[in-house]
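Morning F.,

Quick status update on the modeling queue. The single chain you submitted on Monday has been processed. Sequence for confirmation:
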Amino acid sequence: MTQSTTSRASLRWTHSVAFSILCLSLTSATFAQSQAPAVTQNPGTTAPKHPLAFEVVSIRPSGKNSSYSYGHAPDGYRATHFTLWSLIMQAYFPMPLWSGDRLQNPPQDKQEYDIVAKIAPEDQAEWNSSLKRGLEMQQVMLQNMLADRCKLVFHTIPAETQGFALVTAKHGAKLTPAPPGEPLPKAMQLSAGGVAVGRNNPVNGVEWTFHAAPIASLTGFLSQVSHAIIEDHTQLTGSYDFLLARRSDFSGQGEATNPSDSWELEPLGLRTVPIKVPTVTLVIDHIESPSEN
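Structure tokens below.
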């Protein structure tokens, strides 16, 4: 696999995180994809008790009049200019793990595809019951779609990758518990709960106000913007209101891998430490180009 092929999605991601643009233009659908609860340790080894599948799937070669995109929608899933490599990454890994290291014997089909996948009416209530549940269902449905339309067969081998643990600082966390039943503003929905409102503060730079957010929502956010796996090791179980500000000494060029280098975590009584994160590498045994619609 060439560098341009293996890192295509990551390169496009890097271009999209020119940070002030990223923070003030994120949509809940785009943000949700990076927080999707992908199985990173044993993907695909446990079949769901009730197999889930999209009711209708269209996979067609991409045209010239569209751009790279993907997203979770109320009636299903859509992607444009997606390769099979990117589709496998999304089906089995969170975005920070999208790299050539996670896949051996990659697809030889380098065609870009437009995908429209719709859920069945009987699945809509569960799909839309919460963003978290919808993303869980989407992941399983994408895996089943790859098995059905591309005849994907693979096995896994254990691997490790660099990540960070979010921990409490020496004197403990400094977070305000969210009042029970707190009304939430219309803002970016977080897959683990709560919402976040971003703005460009002319004095302090980019900042996000989190409302009724569990720590999992914070680690999901940090994982996205840092393009690194961030694990919650705080043992904090509540939902919180807090302000996350950009570090004033950060250059703003792209995004640092360690969130502590680019975000003011100290005022929240939090910090990050490097860790090794267990994951897997998918070894493809068989895959075909998508079957006809």
